[in-house]
Amino acid sequence: MSDWNLSLDIKRQYWINWFLVPLLLAHKYLELAIYDxxxxxxxxxxxxxxxxxxLLVFFVTxxxxxxxxxxxxxxxxxxxxxxxxxxxxxxxxxxxxxxVDLLLTIFLFLYNREENMVSFLxxxxxxxxxxxxxxxxxxxxxxxxxxxxxxxxxGYLLGGNYNQIGVRMIxxxxxxLITREYGRWWRINSNILIVNSILVExxxxxxxxxxxxGMFVIYMCVTNIQLKRLGTILLFSYTIFFQIFICFNGNDLxxxxxxxYIIQDVLGKDMTFTGRTYLWSGAMQLFGDSPIWGYGAIxxxxxVEHLSGLGLGTHNYIYEELLRGGIIxxxxxxxxxxxxxxxxAICDISNKMLRENMLFxxxxxxxMQTMEAYPTxxxxxxxxxxxNLSYSQIEQNVVTVxxxxxxxxxxx
Length: 412
Description:
mainly alpha
């Protein structure tokens, strides 16, 4: 009788991607709870995401090397958890609705880096696009959003509120830009997705997302590498300028005659940016009370209590990070982003245009976040895309595993 071979090659468990990617992206992309009949399914997906994180940690522990990039991400997550414990904020909500998703993102990219990155990115792109198109179908079949005020309508399948659709569009566009290299049908899908994103944002009236996606599309049409890099630097610099001199000033903008002239007379905008300056002033006061390490796990209920009912958030991601982790947490998070961007900027890939487009896309999302606050998951996912861009190329997707039996801390 022949012996049964029960050995498990845990380096090549491709079903992991087919199972975990749709699960994770469904949890983050789709707001299934807007329909009562899907509330149970939403809970099942959430619970599955938590269990999947534990499963993936097991596989990664025995098969992959941990780069410093992942180590910095883990430090950031556990720093926020530690501060939440010390400050007595809602650690349970942070762990279940944020930390688990960040861990799963980190370990998914880590698991696929050495051998499976191309197939992993194909699954990510296909899944994200399907969910985007599901959102289109929902808007057509359930046109309640055409009747109600866009500021108060919370019935979009993609994120609930119209402000949250844009970040899903940006991430999906970046995924399709990578997979354009994989064949004709991937290129066709990318073109459809980009046009669809513009049409959806125009339909729901999200001017921030519409203008930024439009700017990104125009940028992608530029063919000069040096000009593209200059555009990314200028956008990044302008974002920092806007954050420092506009967002950090809050209601004090009224005292700046030049700002009043630019915002009201030139741009024709409300000086409060639709009430955002009140939120920014309140956030700055809260930051002043705990500037070094912040408050840890901050939730909508926390904002209701501490912002005197002004809103459920700050409408500015930089403030969110400063309140969550203070100067220390914000510095760690910023370092992770710059580390990933530098890795992308110097990576040696044949398609230089892709590299520049990815950097500009990340900068575009950064600028969008001066006016909105998106879940950290999307930023972390894009950081991982930037860091692992060189592994996304078919001709460079080679195996470089050494000693796969344990985790190796490696600077790469």
